Amino acid sequence: MPKVVDHDQRRVEIIEAAWRTIARTGWDSATMAAIAAEAGFANGALKPYFATKDDLLAAAFDHIYVQTGRRMVAATAGKHGLAALRAYCREILPLDETTRDEARVVLPFWHKALTTAHLAARHERAMREWRTQLQRHLSEARDAGEVRTPIPDEDIVGHLLTALLGAQITATLMPDLETAQTLTTQLDAFLELLRGPAGTSCG
């Protein structure tokens, strides 16, 4: 009997092979043949799933976004206010090997999105969702009296998202300076400022 192929699973395997290859060799060197080899498939086996490398890059971004979302749900479970906000932000920061590899994939995606409307729209949808969730956790913290700064929530969320996305760049280009400890310290220092002059540690 012919082997039954799980096409959804194969698609995921190709996407994961793509982001591993891009993270390891860079976008220009990550040819379709190299990605196929990483996935353990013959050259040309990717075409039925992804017609071009740009299509594969878009799918890799979507995959990373979904995986990040799952980590966010797990990390914030049972947490509220600033603790939940901190946990949510930490899942965006490139703090370990996996998330640093993801950042190396996101950077070429951003470059492509500058001149590709449907990729830019993909990114905007993802960032709108992150803004919504950041706002939710921040509002909860303010309602609980943890946040006392007069700075409007919209500005705080904008600052946070800009810093979190910027960390994708700095941690990729300067990994010896922007370590996991450094990025975590920066996040905690900012969250502490939200408490105002009479703040106490958020733990």
Automatic annotation (TrEMBL):
Q: Which residues bind DNA?
A: 31-50
Molecular functions (GO terms): DNA-binding transcription factor activity; transcription cis-regulatory region binding
Could you tell me which residue ranges the HTH tetR-type domain spans?
8-68
Alphabetically sorted, this entry's keywords are:
DNA-binding, Repressor, Transcription, Transcription regulation
**Which protein, by its recorded name, is this?**
TetR family transcriptional regulator
Q: What taxonomic ancestry is recorded? A: Bacteria, Bacillati, Actinomycetota, Actinomycetes, Micromonosporales
